[in-house]
Amino acid sequence: MNQKDNKFSRIKQKKLRLFEAFAGYGGASFALRKTNIPFETIGFSENDKFAVELYKRNHPGVADFGDITKIDPKDIPDFDLFTGGFPCQPFSQVGLGKGEEDTRGTLFYDIIRICGTKKPKHILLENVRGLKTNKHGKTLETIVSKLTKMGYDVVVELLNSKNYGIPQNRDRVWIYAYLGSLPLTFDLQPPQQPLDVFFKDLLDKDPDEELFKDQQQVERLKELYKLDFIVNEPSCADLYNKTIRNDGISITILEPHHNKMRVVHPPKNGKLRVRKYSIAEHFRLMGFKDGEIDFADQGYNQLCKRAANGWDINLASRIFKQIFKQVEAVTVRAKPAYLA
Ligand SMILES: C[S@@+](CC[C@H](N)C(=O)[O-])C[C@H]1O[C@@H](n2cnc3c(N)ncnc32)[C@H](O)[C@@H]1O
How far is CA 117 from CA 78, 133, 161, in A? Predict the structure, then answer.
């Protein structure tokens, strides 16, 4: 029976309206596209000009609200879902010392300011693992307590990309807030999946020679990191931990200036082969298929920075599916057909 035939039906499904804050390349929009949840992105907020350009190229027509600190919530049309991987600054020690929950001066304050006015049904936030550690534990407590006071039920999970089919060791804290009461059985953690694709499978078949270090640079790396760089198959060198990984998993994608992620290939003609990851490799390790994102003709540093700060869109899509199989994405009370 369709909607029209059922004259007593009061429930009409509509598209989930998304507001994407701290948008980067638009991880939430990319992830939702991988689900069968009907959605429309009604606006985004981002203050980095390269990120804005990349976002607009990939999500044309979405209203640009710019810097989140300058947004007047009344200017944003209503939405059902607020998303944001917000840059984390610890909250004011002074405020916390007094037992207050002072979020002023942090970007989280702007999330509270906007969601407090707009009251979206769902909020999905993401941050680095550090948010759960002792040092920043207070920050997470403050976030949860602020959202709870606003009427949200809040669930927090630490999830790692490597447990969901992507060979990257990327731990992130996910915070889901639902306006109202979640079912007691609600679980934010999607079902895990053993890896069937490994680091070497996601590498370029014929990597650009420009990515490779010259022999002098390799010698320097050998000295600095006490590594011999001899492998039987392409592997990830983890320069932070001075080791070559043998588990087929990449270390966390980091911004290029860290200089800590390297691919090591088996030696060729007696020469050691060590190189940077390509742009495509960064994005495959963030859950993208080749061609899924338009790079907007941007350069290596900008694109790799976006990947390092972005959402793993494979994991994010699984989180959305996990949420919306347990709670309705959007329910609009429509006039019963017999009154229409
Ligand atoms: C951790 S990244 C989030 C990336 C995003 N989740 C994605 O999938 O690509 C944080 C983003 O917030 C942006 N940002 C920082 N300050 C901002 C502000 N005041 N207003 C809007 N965006 C801001 C940064 O430029 C960065 O792209």
Answer: 10, 30, 33
| Atom 14 (ligand 1) nearest CA | 22
CA of 284 to the centre of ligand 1 (A): 20
Task: Give 179-222 pLDDT, tens digit per residue.
Answer: 999 999 999 999 999 999 999 999 999 999 999 999 999 999 99
Q: Please give the Cα distance from 227 to 32 (Å, whole number).
A: 42
Q: With CA atoms as reference, report the closest residue to 264 among 238, 301, 300, 290.
A: 238
pLDDT of residue 323: 98
What does pTM read for this prediction? Answer: 0.92
The answer to whether residue 13 scores a pLDDT higher than 70 is no
Cα(126)–Cα(319) distance, integer angstroms: 11
Q: Are 229 and 266 in contact (CB under 8 A)?
A: no
The two tokens of residue 235 are 């592997």
105-148 per-position pLDDT tens digit: 688 889 999 999 999 999 999 998 888 776 677 788 889 999 99
Measured distance CA(318)–CA(177) in Å, rounded: 17
Cα 166 to averaged position of ligand 1 atoms, centre (Å): 23
Does the beta carbon of 336 lie inside 6 Å of ligand 1?
no
Residue 255 beta carbon below 6 angstroms from any ligand 1 atom: no
Residue ranges covered by each domain of the chain: 11-192+294-333, 205-277
CB-CB contact of 26 with 20 (8 Å): yes
Q: Is the pLDDT of residue 8 over 90?
A: no
Cβ(85) to ligand 1 under 6 A?
Answer: yes
Contact 153, 177 (CB under 8 A): yes
The question of whether 88 is a catalytic residue gets the answer yes
Nearest CA to ligand 1 atom 21: 46
Q: What is the CATH number of domain 11-192+294-333?
A: 3.40.50.150
